[in-house]
């Protein structure tokens, strides 16, 4: 039996509890640092120290909050209607009971789509809930109840799916959270020691300063490890899902199938213009529906003709770096380059299977 509307509402409300917890901790840390440390604890004779602490603290606090809420409010990108079955094929698929015949229907439709990964058994990846052929790196999220492009994972701390539309924001959230905690620890430690060794008198600020240092240090240790792991994934051009289960191509699974070298891998998430890397504004490459791989030649004309129907990619005359134009098949150990619209796109083929 499907859950009632009331239960669904309760579940959605409970999903915000981790977000509320994080915001309460951050709000308290702001009060403890600005009021208890900078106003009541730092001597009034040290105005230069107080001002420098407040300026540095507020810079990282603002970037942390900005990237955190961008991660929360960025709607997960879903497959366009170009990946849905046409009406005639959909009726045939729903009427057909034999799995092998259903697969033939899906394969017929998938021939016109930029889809190059499959299930472990070689079948077309199809979502029965969303009723779409899944683009490469797309997965269905049971919490969001939708298919998410380039899904990494569902994060309860942001109550949102982390995927193509907000992965950069999530990385920056981890980075600025780490720096936020590091700034607190570095500037609070001297007063933490003075309170701990009773060089400062016991005041109402003592509890806040001691607890602030412990909480910031604890969060720093946990967040920096998660941030390091995700930066490693960025360097490999893998999602968390792909790290545990390698994507399957026509010639079998390959965990490095989407890796194009560390420079291209970083640009895939953060964009080619370094001036946008530190800001939580969308600059990731591609459209989330198709990806360059080191194993598969993607014909941009075929992919664009399908995806342009829904305005998912630039019109003719603009270069889409998520695809590679090439008239010859790639060979192992070599690289192919082609200039298109003044931009050069290169893919290096590794010798690994």
UniProtKB/TrEMBL annotation:
It is found in: Membrane. Its main location: membrane. It comes from the Eukaryota. It is an enzyme of class 2 (transferase). It catalyses: L-cysteinyl-[protein] + hexadecanoyl-CoA = S-hexadecanoyl-L-cysteinyl-[protein] + CoA. Residues 125-244 form the Palmitoyltransferase DHHC domain. The chain crosses the membrane at residues 12-31, 51-69, 169-193, 205-229. It is a multi-pass membrane protein. Keywords: Acyltransferase, Membrane, Transferase, Transmembrane, Transmembrane helix. Coiled coil: none annotated. PROSITE patterns: DHHC (PS50216). Residues 327-340 have a biased composition (Basic and acidic residues). One of its GO terms (cellular component) is membrane. Residues 324-353 are annotated as: Disordered. InterPro entries: Palmitoyltrfase_DHHC, PFA4/ZDH16/20/ERF2-like. GO terms for molecular function: protein-cysteine S-palmitoyltransferase activity. Pfam families: DHHC (PF01529). Its EC number is 2.3.1.225. Belongs to the DHHC palmitoyltransferase family. PANTHER family: PALMITOYLTRANSFERASE ZDHHC16. The DHHC domain is required for palmitoyltransferase activity. This is Palmitoyltransferase. It comes from Poecilia formosa.
